[in-house]
Amino acid sequence: MTYNIPLDTMCHNTESQKSRGIKVKRTKTILFGFTVLSMTFMWSGCANKAPQLPNIYYEKESNTPKLDTVNTIEVGESIYEKLGNMSYSVKLDEPAEVLKSSGNDYDYNPAWLLLGPLAPVAGAGLMYMNGENTTTAATSSGPLYLRKWNNWTVACNEKARCIVDAYNQNTFTHSTKYPNENLIELEHPIQYSKVPTFSPNSSVNSFKYQALYEGRLGSKIKISFREFTNNMAQPSFTQDVEYELESDDTALVGFKGLRIEVIKATNLDMTYKIVQDYN
């Protein structure tokens, strides 16, 4: 089996990258021929001690939608969602085919990025191939968490190989091995989305508050309030509340400090705005 491993590519916009704090490294692409057996030997020859990784990124607080904005949602959808101390995992917006480098079917961008579940050493890959054109951003131990390093957003495998969003624009543009700050430009940028994920650190008190619209019956609307804490798949608290609409089908309703101004409500959807956050 032959792998075309791009140890580096010529970085473009060198001066622009330097101005953003990116140390640019220039090397050549080298062709290596080796078997799976020799790959296993090379990786297993590394130190047994788990390498240190950048800190997982936590967002202290976020909410959707923003206060005082008019929104319309359908029955069963979220009226309001508030997150606290949440980390973020990676959702790929690119099919697996885009992640491949030019060359034969075994070449990837870079070679360690996309090795699949049959990688010789657990954790050697950063993303798994699930099928012809699908990938999962994950390591062998769980979700692929976003981390903060310098002013970059990064995602790293268990061998401290990292892909880097150097400009914090939801696009991985470079790669490196932590803590080496010499970034290598990816052959193809990789777009991704941030998925709110409960913290893997049990000492961090993550939470999610959610209000769901459950429809209208006569002159009343029903809203379900739910609270999730510390990585619980099921809500730790749920309360369904019915509210009486005014004669013009509007209302100002509340729950634990949250204030929702109902502009219009039907059995299909509700138009509203959040005028006050939870206490």
Report what the structure shows.
The protein has 279 residues and is mainly beta. It folds into two domains: 2-57 and 88-197, no CATH class; 61-85 and 201-276, no CATH class. It has helices at 14-19, 36-44, 96-99, and strands at 2-5, 23-24, 30-33, 55-56, 58-64, 71-74, 78-92, 127-129, 135-139, 142-143, 147-149, 152-156, 161-165, 171-177, 182-197, 207-217, 220-229, 237-244, 251-255, 258-265, 269-276. Strands 2, 4, 5, 7, 11, 12, 13, 14, 15, 16, 17 and 18 form a twelve-stranded mixed β-sheet that branches.
Provide a short characterization of the protein structure:
The protein has 279 residues and is mainly beta.
Structural class: mainly beta
Beta-strand level of the residues, as a percent range? over 45%
Please provide the ordered H/E string of secondary-structure elements: EHEEHEEEEHEEEEEEEEEEEEEE
Overall tally of structural domains: 2
What's the overall average pLDDT, rounded? 74
Uncertain regions spanning at least 5 consecutive residues: 1-20, 24-47, 104-108, 116-124, 129-134
Distance between the termini: 60 Å
Please estimate the helix content.
under 10%
- Gyration radius (Cα, Å) is 24 Å
What's the total count of β strands? Answer: 21
Number of distinct helices = 3
* Shape summary: elongated
Largest sheet: 12 strands, mixed
What is the element layout, followed by pairings?
Blueprint: E1 2-5, H1 14-19, E2 23-24, E3 30-33, H2 36-44, E4 55-56, E5 58-64, E6 71-74, E7 78-92, H3 96-99, E8 127-129, E9 135-139, E10 142-143, E11 147-149, E12 152-156, E13 161-165, E14 171-177, E15 182-197, E16 207-217, E17 220-229, E18 237-244, E19 251-255, E20 258-265, E21 269-276
Parallel strand pairs: 2-15
Antiparallel strand pairs: 1-3, 4-11, 5-7, 6-21, 7-15, 7-16, 8-9, 9-10, 11-12, 12-13, 13-14, 14-15, 16-17, 17-18, 19-20, 20-21
